[in-house]
Write a structure and sequence with these properties.
Layout: H1 3-10, H2 14-31, E1 36-40, H3 45-57, E2 61-65, H4 73-85, E3 93-95, H5 99-109, H6 114-136, E4 138-140, H7 146-151, H8 172-181, H9 186-189, H10 203-207, H11 211-222, H12 228-235, H13 239-251, H14 253-256
Parallel strand pairs: 1-2, 1-4, 2-3
Helix pairs in contact: 2-3, 3-8, 5-6
Length: 280
């Protein structure tokens, strides 16, 4: 990562960031009329950071560990280490293996395609999270970071199906730094990110770039608004790779927005109905 970008992204006050995010989680839970929050804990850096922030915001927390046959044993051990870090007890976490549920859906669809099955896994986890959330009157607290959200590197109505995204405005490199600040074990912080939807899957392997480079491109293009040639020189990255990242952002816009309603009336459903329309 170029020093210029590193200073912009990492020379920040993580104490203040933590304080702000914890307070916003606490406020949002209260304003929503809910009693707490639930997190799907995978053993990765994003869910680990989110779990710690939620635990600081409220005592009413629940954690779901939802491994499958493609979940590395190390990930499950890391998830347990986070449960220990936040002083979770047997009363506020569950472990549910999702293989049998996934298999039922896959057979109903008639496919063993790893992409289809992988997305089924993500959506099964979303269903379980919302069922437990409703049972406890909790919010589903999402774990997506800014890098993944911008790239569209998540499953629509899977891990993207949540109520709030506390770390959604932090790039992956910032989440890693925040993780160290919060006392998350270094082996989790430095572990290659992976949804583990199939064996051997890693985010950086699929995308073809490491996250420091990805974050540099995203920041320079969409926040500094630099052109591709300038970004290429600053990051020492081939323009084709930069164009790939930009294309991922543009083509995944539908994932970040509610479904488009084709307007036929003066005021469609996606208007803000909290306020009466002001006619001129």
């Amino acid at each position: 990562m170029p020093d210029y970008v590193r200073k912009k992204l990492l020379l920040v006050d993580f104490d203040k960031i933590t304080e702000y995010l914890v307070e916003r989680i606490r406020e949002y839970i209260k304003e929503s009329g809910k009693e707490g929050g639930i997190v799907g804990l995978s053993g990765g850096i994003d869910s680990s950071v989110t779990a710690v922030l939620l635990s600081k915001a409220t005592k009413n927390v629940y954690f779901l560990l939802m491994p499958s046959s493609s979940t590395p044993h190390q990930d499950l051990q890391h998830a347990y280490s986070i449960l220990k870090l936040v002083n979770a007890t047997e009363k506020n976490y569950s472990v549910i293996n999702i293989d049998e549920i996934t298999s039922l859906f896959s057979k109903a669809v008639g496919t063993d395609d790893k992409l289809v099955v992988g997305n089924i896994k993500a959506r099964v986890r979303m269903i379980l999270l919302y069922a437990f959330a409703q049972k406890h009157n909790y919010l589903v607290v999402g774990t997506g970071d800014k890098s993944e959200l911008m790239l569209g590197y998540f499953t629509k109505y899977g891990d993207g199906g949540v109520d709030i995204l506390p770390i959604g405005d932090l790039y992956k490199t910032q989440v890693r730094a925040l993780g160290l600040h919060l006392g998350i074990p270094e082996e989790i912080v430095k572990k290659p990110p992976s949804p583990a939807l199939w064996e051997g899957q890693t985010a950086e392997g699929e995308i073809g770039l490491d996250y420091e480079t990805i974050d540099s491109i995203l920041y320079l293009k969409f926040e500094e608004m630099l052109d591709e040639e300038t970004i290429s020189k600053i990051t020492n990255t081939d323009i084709s790779a930069i164009n790939k990242i930009i294309k991922m952002v543009k083509t995944s816009q539908h994932k970040r927005l509610p479904p488009e309603i084709f307007r036929l009336s003066g005021r469609a459903i996606n208007s803000d109905w909290r306020y009466p329309r002001q006619w001129g």
